[in-house]
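Structural prep section.
Before we set up the soaks we want a predicted structure of the protein with guanosine-5'-monophosphate in place, mainly to decide which crystallisation condition to try first. Input record follows.
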Amino acid sequence: MREGNIFIVSGPSGGGKTTLVERVLQDLNDLRFSVSCTTRKPRAGEVNGKDYIFVTENEFKKMIDEDKFAEYANVHGHMYGTPLAELESAAKSGVDLLLDIDVQGARQIRQRFSRGVYCFVLPSSFELLRARLLERGSENRGEIEKRLSEAGKEIEDIDNYDYIIINDELDRALESLVSVIISARCRKEKSIGIIKKGYSSK
Ligand code: ADP
Ligand code: 5GP
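Run finished without errors. Recording the tokens verbatim:
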């Protein structure tokens, strides 16, 4: 069985990660979303176990102590972490895994696993980012300003990413992300074994 890819999507809050990830999961097969644990409260419409696993601070601390996370970080004042079990079960089944995590988490995954395809998602300007956060309206003004000021710091990490997905027009951004995923799947090391086996009698 081939080893699945790990796709990491990061970027400032409001950049469009959740929207794009949702669309890409509808469009592509054999791609699983890595459901993170978080201590933040669910937003309207978010489903426990699908969008996030919502846990208490104590539950999160216990998971850290038991070494249950592949990575974790404090993002905008709340704890977020990728369960190690997500990576293990994807590896076992050979499916590709898609992680929507912040730049600190991406750094940890890069160091610990030395693999992955790293994508940074954002609109082309700060003004557009602000407009998106205001339009989403899931945070109050103070919280939005905090997220915007953190965006500057997050963008400093962009050099560590393999791809930049500019999300001005949703369909074009989706096309870019799908292309990245498909091209990673076409890399020769992913299928050379199958081809050699298929042609071995000739
Ligand atoms: P993130 O997960 O990165 O915080 P979201 O996916 O929640 O960002 O997107 C932020 C807001 O912008 C949401 O209201 C979403 O519907 C909207 N949005 C995302 N992409 C686009 C786009 N290309 N054009 C217009 N609105 C968008
Ligand atoms: P939100 O609260 O808007 O859903 O997410 C806030 C930020 O947390 C986003 O940048 C998102 O990528 C990040 N995030 C979500 N899950 C994880 C995770 O498991 N680990 C880390 N490090 N960041 C995460």
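Observations: The chain has a mean pLDDT of 95.
Flagged for discussion at group meeting.
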